[in-house]
Design goal:
alpha+beta, seven-stranded mixed β-sheet, four-stranded antiparallel β-sheet, 12 helices
Length: 328
């Protein structure tokens, strides 16, 4: 590491090609967060100005949000190399950017490695309670077996009775872009009408979640407009009477055998539709997954109740790390 000139480190915007070309870097160490596969970095690349730098066959990520300044991510490398690349990025922040090193969403596995290496003694460590990912047993989500999930099965049975012979699941391709955009537009219009952007965080503070929802929608447009991304993710939909009424977008963490559900949208007026797309997407696109990550609840109470109703087997907790006592 001594031969690396910090000023030579170049952080380029995270691109569509990076979803494919940088994929191997994301699976070099244990990590069960939604950020453990490249699609999340792409979806939020504009919102957070996600940038990446490949150095000595390892990868560093950096964010720059207008109202929050620079932040890093835990380096994409093996556990063994994590301490030295963490120190490299810390030096880059301190010596090149002239700022304290901070990470907004550090996964708990990475934090534990850094703690054991003694590298976080001079860091504030704060759990971001609203942003923990919900983890589920994949087979339970595919079968919905057992008393706990009886209500979910009942919703699906009701849907199947109502729309018998009228619905189908379909793996979506680039030919289905217009269908996806049409459903996305109607979903967004419905959310705007009911004002579902109001959220409350773990500190019982209210906030408007529509900004992040708008960014998510932009991320879907980015996926649909970049064939190289579209080909490297899983997208499935439910059609009723030939019309797309629900779709889900996800990707797969091979190391953890974990399906990550990044986007899920459905017509809220169709009873049982969310339960159907949830189950069918896993059955068709992730039959070998052992674990499912359905991301966080964004602080929205309705989304929190929905995610809890599927009885998660655990959570992937995330942390804010901020260097203390930094002086330029």
């Amino acid at each position: 590491m001594e031969d690396i000139n910090l000023k030579d480190l170049k952080f380029d915007p995270f691109s569509a090609e990076d979803v494919r070309n940088l994929r191997e870097y994301f699976f070099m160490r244990p990590n069960k967060s939604c950020d453990s596969a490249p699609l999340d970095s792409f979806i939020w690349r504009n919102y957070y100005d996600v940038r990446r730098c490949v150095v000595n066959n390892e990868c560093l990520l950096m964010l720059e949000k207008e109202d929050a300044g620079y932040a890093g991510c835990i380096p994409l490398c093996s556990e063994e190399k994590l301490p030295e690349y963490f120190k490299l990025q810390e030096r880059y922040f301190n010596e090149v950017l002239g700022e304290p090193f901070q990470i907004y969403l550090a996964d708990e596995e990475g934090v534990e490695v850094l703690k054991k290496a003694g590298l976080l003694e001079n860091y504030e460590i704060r759990e971001e309670e609203d942003l923990k990912d919900y983890l589920y047993d994949a087979e339970a989500m595919r079968t919905l077996a057992g008393r706990k999930l009886a209500k979910k099965r009942n919703h699906i049975h009701k849907f199947e009775e109502t729309y018998a012979g009228r619905w189908e699941y379909k793996t979506l391709t680039t030919e289905d872009k217009l269908d996806i955009l049409s459903l996305l537009a109607s979903w967004k219009e419905q959310k705007d009408e009911v004002g579902e952007g109001a959220g409350i965080n773990a500190k019982e503070e209210t906030f408007d979640a529509m900004e992040s929802l708008d960014a998510e929608i932009l991320g879907v447009h980015e996926i649909l407009n970049n064939d190289s991304v579209f080909e490297n993710v899983k997208i499935g939909g439910i059609y009723i009477d030939g019309k797309l009424c629900a779709f889900s977008i996800g990707n797969y963490n091979e190391r953890e055998k974990m399906a990550i559900i990044d986007i899920e949208k459905a017509d809220p007026d169709v009873i049982g539709l969310y339960q159907v797309i949830n189950q069918q997407f896993l059955i068709h696109e992730f039959p070998d997954a052992l674990l499912v990550n359905r991301e966080d609840d964004v602080g929205l109470e309705g989304l929190r109740r929905s995610k809890m109703s599927y009885y998660p087997i655990g959570f992937e907790r995330k942390y804010m790390l901020r260097q203390k006592d930094f002086v330029k």
